[in-house]
Amino acid sequence: MTVVAEGLSKAYGRHTVLDHLDLTVPSGAIYALLGPNGAGKTTTVRLLATLLRPDSGRASVAGFDVVDARSEVRRRISLTGQHAALDEQQTGEENLRMVARLTGLSRAAARERAGQLLERFALTDAAGRRVKTYSGGMRRRLDLAAGLVGEPEVMFLDEPTTGLDPRSRQAVWEEVARLASAGVTIFLTTQYLEEADRLADRIALLHRGRLVAEGTAAELKHRVAGERLELTLADADAYEHAELMLGGRIVRRDPARSTLEVATDGSGAHVRELLDALDPGRTLVERFAVRSSTLDDVFLEVTADV
Amino acid sequence: MSEVLVMAGRSVRLSLRAGDALITALALPIMMMLLFVYFFGGAIETGGPYVQHVVPGVLVLCAAYGAGTTAMSVANDMAEAVMDRLRSLDVSATALLGGHVAASVVRNLAATVLVFAVAFAIGFRPVASPGDWLLAAALIAAFVTAMSWLAAAIGLLARTPEAASGYAFVFAFLPYPSSAFVPVETMPGWLQAFAAGQPLTQVIDSMRALLLDRPVTVLGAAFVWCVALGLAGVAAAAALYRLRVKRA
Questions:
Q1: How many domains does one find in chain A?
Q2: At what angle do helices B199-211 and B219-247 cross, to 10 degrees?
Q3: Locate the ABC transporter domain: which residues (chain A) (predicted)?
Q4: Domain ranges, ordered by start, for chain B
Q5: Are residues A39 and A165 in the same domain?
Q6: Residues contacting B27, CB < 8 A, separation 6+
Q7: How close A228 gets to chain B, by Cα (Å)?
Q8: What is the pLDDT, as a whole number, of residue B198?
């Protein structure tokens, strides 16, 4: 296990940000911490990356304790935060060379390493330009490159694609996948379910400082109904009637849109039987649709009653 | 040590690229010197050409403005994501702050040279032996180093770069109640005690004595003040840095 957290807690004054967080990340995995704004994602990353001290609990990264062996941890990780950690008034190359020098490389080695990374991230042409002239996508690429200077074992990526256009997002995803296949453990946070679904081997759902679910995307989707029948009711009366009839079988309700969802196996027989029982007069249900669960469903379900 | 050099190189590069800010920082002390020499100087009795009197004061004022820049650049770093990267690279506080201070000293010494150059052009004629020049240079270096550490501490105390620049304004005010521009004896009695005793007066009087071949009386006190203020700055910066990082 490359990242292990046990009972990690952090509060600011009376505001609890993280509440006894336990998690383990196997080495070489892509692990996604998924949650809305304010769930505690950034705090978790900062604790694991040794920038914050936990109030209680303990954590280790690459086998070293994040409090007692801070320097050992720092030598093996890199952190790419939500905001590009670059000097606007330095060029792309100067930023990378500075980071390389700070990781202990000689002047010549730093120049070489910077050159390699600029090429790998398709920034060679922009190497001599100040970062303030870079686009959002270029900044993010340079930021990732800066995170790779020290060849980390574990990379923490805090919302690596927030605010990026679809193409830049795609480029970041590809790079993350490539790093993982090269054996780097990736710990990323995201508020996009699609991103977690697409990239991560394991996903943890964080809600108000607590882990509310954890597993592979398939496992999580399986926790809620795999297939769903979405019914659009004719009017408010029909909605109320249907809600009463279906009772506990409802997995999701949306009165504003007059829709209800119930679990189904997706077979014609089941759908027909359900519709006949619910609506013998054929006036209540206006439309129906069968769909597979998404991580959205999982998220809404596990956070509904917390 | 190489960490400090890398961080100092970064700070120097960033200040060279600050554009307008750099020009303002260099031009302001010169403007102040011209203002005092040509507008106010005629009315101030110092027993000789006013430019001879005012140059050491302008050097100190210059260091005080420089402190504002330093406080702001430290506060800037603390407020930005780049701080997380530097910390996660395990860059020590010594290197982070030492780099700022080193760059601050370089900036200030460059400004000092510029002030001297303009002062010569407008009639400043120092009378000093090479040994006196060396002592004067050592004193100004000690003074700007002390101011830079205090400025770094202020940059850590302030929550925003704007606040840092506001706090540092105290430094830019302190030369006025000192022997920088007008003789202390012309001030009201209650102010004289402060003006005569405060560290800037010791530094300025010593510079004046060294550069104008007058009896050097308070040089020891001036150096002691610089070392004391510098150490206070280092201690305050270290403590504030720990606080900031712990609370972050």
A1: 2
A2: 140
A3: 3-233
A4: 2-247
A5: yes
A6: none
A7: 43
A8: 92
Q: Measure A137 CA to nearest chain B CA, in Å.
A: 17
Q: What is the distance between the alpha carbons of residues A139 and A120, in angstroms, rounded to a whole number?
A: 14
Q: Do residues A244 and A258 share a domain?
A: yes
Q: Are residues A198 and A228 in the same domain?
A: no
Same domain, A240 and A204: no
Residues within 8 A of A (CB atoms), B 78-137 only: 80-91
Q: Does B12 touch chain A (CB under 8 A)?
A: no
What gap in Å lies between CA B200 and CA B203, rounded to an integer? 5
Q: Are residues A207 and A289 in the same domain?
A: no
**Chain B residues with beta carbon closer than 8 angstroms to that of A82:** 81
Which of B194, B203, B201, B198 shows the shortest CA–CA distance to B223?
A: B203
3-state secondary structure of B176: coil
- Using a CB-CB cut-off of 8 Å, the residues of chain B touching A46 are 84, 248
Mutation for B interface: A46, A64, A101, most B CBs within 10 A: A101
Determine, for residues A74 and B13 on separate chains, whether the beta-carbon distance falls below 8 Å: no
Indicate whether A189 and A208 sit together in one domain: yes
Pair (A180, A267) in one structural domain: no
Range of the domain at A291: 224-304
- What pLDDT, in 10s, does the model give residues A231-247? 999 888 889 888 888 88
Task: For A148-193, write each residue's pLDDT tens digit.
Answer: 998 899 999 999 888 888 888 888 899 999 999 999 999 999 988 8
B149 to chain A, closest Cα gap in Å: 22
Q: Which residues on A lie below 8 Å from B1 (Cβ)?
A: none
The C-alpha angle with vertex B234 and arms to B233 and B238, in degrees rounded to 5, equals 115
Instruction: List pLDDT tens digits, range A81-97.
Output: 888 889 999 999 999 99
A105 neighbourhood in chain B, CB within 8 Å: none
